[in-house]
Every structure is written in structure tokens, then in C-alpha cells.
Automatic annotation (TrEMBL):
This is Uncharacterized protein. It comes from Handroanthus impetiginosus. It comes from the Eukaryota. Pfam families: Hydrolase_6. InterPro entries: HAD-like_sf, HAD-SF_hydro_IIA, HAD-SF_hydro_IIA_CECR5, HAD_sf.
Length: 169
């Protein structure tokens, strides 16, 4: 099933307000933008798939300015968008801005005004507490840090093969 708009959708509706200033080099006359999934479409692990590097370079002009707006979507996360943008830039050989990266946890940024000074226990893969702190939340700890304050709170601790906290002596 195809959906068609009666009139072209303005690009300003397709990108979050904070991204507009960052993508100011994009032609305002571009009739469309592109959203790429990262895992399994652009990259397999840290390796570009097929001609994805070449295809992305075609979205820029000879001076490095975007001709066609695009962003990356992933349900993954665990690292700040700024770090993911840096990694993608390095792997793909094109300049990727943090505002061009939308991860599974990115919508939490919109909750900053409401929960900025509330106590937050951040859970998830990677470094969720670091991500939340970068978003501007003030009172954030990781689940492991929270659990370390309670002896035997984690019934599966003996089966875990990872750690997110340095061992205390």
C-alpha cells in the first residue's frame, strides 16, 4: 500500500526543531529526505555493506554540503548521538552530525524539561547513564550503580559476564 500526500510535506516537519540549525546547508528546495536504518542496511557490525559509502557520498556536493537531507535510525543505542555520529563519519567517510542520528533512546531528550532534576536509574545496553547525563538530566545513575547499594538485590548477578562499574577495593 502506498501513501501519497496531496501536497509535498515541508522538510521542517520531517526533522526535529533542534536539527534545523545543524542542517542549514541542505537545499531548502529538496523535495524529500531519506531515513536509513543502520544495522543490516548501511553497516554489518562496523563494516559498510555493499556500496553504502559511495551511495552516501552522492548525497553531498563537491564542497561537502548536503544536497539531499538524510538521517540514520536505529533501535539500538547505549551511546550518545554525538559519539555515534563520530563513529559513522569515520566508518563511512562522510560528515555525519549528531542531529542526523536517531537512536532508540533519542526521544528521552524531549522529557528533559519535565524530569531534569528527578532521580533516574538508567537501564539498557552500553552506557545509558552517560547518555542521559549528556541529554541534560541531573540526577542519573546506572542500574549497576544503584544495585551496588543493596547487597544481594540482583538474583542473577552470578550469571552475568559483564560489568559496567569498576570494582571497589
Amino acid at each position: 500500500m502506498r501513501f501519497r500526500f496531496k501536497q509535498p510535506v515541508p522538510l521542517s516537519l520531517l526533522r526535529p526543531p533542534h536539527a534545523t540549525a545543524s542542517l542549514h546547508s541542505v537545499s531548502k528546495n529538496s523535495p524529500f529526505g531519506i531515513a536509513f536504518d543502520i544495522d543490516g542496511v548501511i553497516l554489518r557490525g562496523k563494516t559498510p555493506i555493499g556500496n553504502s559509502r559511495r551511495a552516501l557520498r552522492r548525497l553531498y556536493d563537491d564542497y561537502g554540503a548536503l544536497k539531499i537531507p538524510f538521517l540514520f535510525l536505529t533501535n539500538g543505542g547505549g551511546i550518545p548521538e554525538s559519539r555515534r555520529a563520530f563513529e559513522l563519519s569515520d566508518i563511512l567517510g562522510v560528515k555525519i552530525l549528531p542531529s542526523q542520528v536517531v537512536q532508540g533512546h533519542s526521544p528521552f531528550k524531549t522529557l528533559l524539561n519535565r524530569f531534569e532534576n528527578e532521580f533516574i536509574v538508567a537501564t539498557g545496553k552500553g552506557q545509558p547513564a552517560v547518555v542521559m547525563l549528556e541529554y541534560g538530566f541531573k540526577k542519573v545513575i546506572s542500574l549497576d550503580e544503584y544495585a551496588s547499594n543493596f547487597k544481594n538485590i540482583d538474583p542473577v548477578a552470578q550469571y552475568k559476564r559483564w560489568t559496567t562499574m569498576p570494582e571497589l577495593n
